[in-house]
Design brief:
The protein is mostly helical. It has three helices and two strands; from the N terminus they run ααββα. It is globular. The chain starts with 17 loop residues before the first helix and ends with a helix.
Length: 105
C-alpha cells in the first residue's frame, strides 16, 4: 500500500530496497546494527519487513512514544508501557502460532 504513513511490515510493500534488505539480513548476527537515515525514509519499514520475512520474533519500540521532546527525557513509565505492549503482541502471536501447529499435527 503506497502512501500509508504507518511502517510497512511486508517486503512486497517496499520499493527498491533489495540491497538494504540483504545488508540487514547479513548483519543480524552482529552485536549491534545501526540503521541510519533522515526522517520518513523507511528505516522502520526496512527493519520490520525484513524481520517478518525471516519469521524472527522481535520487540519493536517506537521511541517517539517514550521521548519527550520538550524535556528531552525518556520516561521509564512510558518505556515500560511500550515494552509491555510489544511483548503482549508477541505473546498473542506465539499463542496463535501454537494453536495452528497443534491443529496441523
Amino acid at each position: 500500500m503506497l502512501f500509508d504513513t504507518e511502517p510497512k511490515t511486508s517486503l512486497s510493500d517496499l520499493f527498491d530496497r533489495e540491497e538494504e534488505v540483504e545488508k540487514l539480513k547479513r548483519g543480524l548476527n552482529e552485536r549491534l546494527i545501526l540503521v541510519l537515515g533522515i526522517r520518513r525514509i523507511g528505516k522502520s519499514s526496512l527493519i520490520l519487513s525484513t524481520l517478518n520475512s525471516l519469521g524472527i520474533d522481535y520487540v519493536f519500540i517506537d521511541v517517539r512514544k517514550v521521548y519527550d521532546g520538550v524535556t528531552r527525557k525518556v520516561y521509564i513509565e512510558k518505556l515500560l508501557e511500550e515494552i509491555y505492549s510489544s511483548l503482549t503482541r508477541l505473546s498473542k502471536k506465539e499463542y496463535i502460532r501454537s494453536v495452528f501447529e497443534k491443529n496441523r499435527n
